[in-house]
Queue: 2 jobs
Job 1
Amino acid sequence: MVWIEGGTFIMGDDDERPEERAAHEVTVEGFWIDRHEVTNAQLARFVDATGYVTLAERRLDPKDHPGVPPKLLVPGAVVFTPPDGLLNLVDFRQWWRYVPGADWRHPTGPGSSIEGKQNHPAVNLAYEDAQAYARWLGRELPTEAQWEFAARGGLDGATYNWGDEYYDPVAGWRANTWQGLFPLKDDVEDGYSGAAPVGCFAPNGYGLLDMAGNVWEYARDWYVPEHPPEPANDPQGPGLAVAARYAGTATPSVVIKGGSYLCAPNFCARYRPAARQPQELGLGASHIGFRTVAQ
Ligand SMILES: [Ca+2]
Ligand SMILES: [Ca+2]
C-alpha cells in the first residue's frame, strides 16, 4: 500500500460531464491505499482462507426476485461482448450480456478461466464482495473523495492523472483504454485488448497504478447524479437517504471510478479522475474491479 498525505483538492470537473459538477473543495485526511487493483491471486487468498462465495457464484433466491421466471434465476455477471454491427451508441444491450456462470474465476463465462491471469485485476465482483475482501483485511473501500484525491497524484485541477493531454506521442499511452471506434473495433494501440495485468503503465504522481483505465473501481459512496451542493466539503459523500431520494429507490447504486479498458474517446472517455458512473448493487461486470484503503 502507499501512504497518501491528506490535503485539500478540487473534486469534480465543471468542464466535462454533468455528473462531475459542481467542482468543489474537499479535504481528506491521510490514508493508505493499494498501489494496484486487487488481483486474482489476492482474491484467491481471501477465498481460500475464508471459504467466501462471491455473489456471482451464489444461487439466486426467488424471494429476492419476485416475478422472474426460475430459469432466469441463474448466477452470473455482465460481460462485454463486441457486437457485429451497431444501431446506435445508446442501447448498451448491444454490447453487454448477462452471462450465467461468469464469475471471478470465469471472467467471460463457463469455459474461460484465470489460468495465467494471477496478476490481472479480479472482476465480476459485486460491491458486497469487494467490501467483504476489504473488511477481511481490516480495511475499507475508498470513499469517492479519497479515490479521486489519490488518482490525481498531486496534479490538482488537471484533466488527466498525468496532465492535460490525453495522448502524448513521446510519453506514449498512459493507461489501458480503448483506441478506435467503441464498441466495434479496439485498435489496441496501447498493447492491451481487455484487462491487462496490473501495473503495465506508468504510475501517477503518488506511485499508484491504473488509477485511469484497466478496470473501473468501486468507491464506498452511494451514487447521486451530481455532486450535491451541501455539505460541500464532506469527504464521506452523500448518505444513503440522500442517494435514495435521488434514485427514487431504497437501494441506490454505488459509485465506480477511473474508467476501464472499454473507455474510448468516441464514447464515455471516463479515464479522467473526475469521471464517475453508477453501478447497481448485486451485479458484477467484466470491467469492474476494486482496491482498498486503510486509515
Ligand atoms: Ca487497451
Ligand atoms: Ca483502474
Job 2
Amino acid sequence: MPELPEVEQGARVLSMAAVGRTITAVHVLHPAYARALPAADAAHLLGRTVTDVTRRGKHQIATLDDGAVLEVHFRMTGQWHIGQTSDAPVPFARLLVDLTDDTRVVLADPRALGSARLHRTGALALPPLGPEPLTTEFTPQTLAASLAHRRGAIKPALLDQRVVAGLGNIYAAEALWLARISPRAYAASLSPLRLSRLVRAIRTVLRRSPAARYGSQGSGATVWRVYDREGRPCRRCRSRVRRFLQSGRSTYYCPTCQRGP
Ligand SMILES: [Zn+2]
C-alpha cells in the first residue's frame, strides 16, 4: 500500500511526465473514479497546462494554469504508468490523461479504491493532516502534544493522518519495531525518551524505504524488518514475529524486544 515514500515517488513521476505539458484528453474508465471526477470536471481539465506537482501526506496535488488542482490519492493499489498514447492498454487503468507530445499518464489501480478529484481555483480542501514527518515540524514535542489526549494504543494512532501525515500500516510497524515500542503501548503514556526514539525511527524507515532509495516505483526487492514476517525470527533477537489484528489491520511485532507501556 502506498505510503509517504511511494506517494512522494508517484508525485515525482507525475511531475516529470506532466509539468509544462497541456492536457489534450481525459478518459475516466471506472464508475468509482467517475463519481470522484464527473464529466464536467474531466472536461475542465482539457486545454489546461500542468504547472506543478507536489505532495502533502498521501495526497498528490497537480496544479493547473488556471489555479485549479487535480488531487490524486492512490489508497491501496494506485500507481502511475507513463507511456505514449499509442501504447498497448495498461491493466486496471482507471484514468487516462493525454498530454501534448502524446504522453499518456495512466492511473492503474486494481482495487479501484483510489481517486482523482478536481478542486476549482482556491477550493483545495484536504482532510486535516498532521505534520510531515521528514520536516522540522515533526518533533517529539509535537508528537507528544498530539498523543496527549488520545485513548488507545500507539500503532492505530500512527495511522491517523492527523497525528502524522503519510504513515500507513507498513511503516508504522517498521518504525515501532526500530524504536522497540510495542504496537499495544498506550499512546498517551509514552515517555519523552521513547517518543524521541519513535520520531527518529519514523524518519529512518521512511528514508530507507525502497521508493526513497531506488527512485523507481514498485518494491520487488523489499526487505522489511518486521512487517509481513509472522512466525519468522526477529531480525534483532530471533524471537518469532507475531501478527494480530489491531483496529482491523494486521500488526506485526516482536513480543520480546518491543516493550509495552
Ligand atoms: Zn525481537
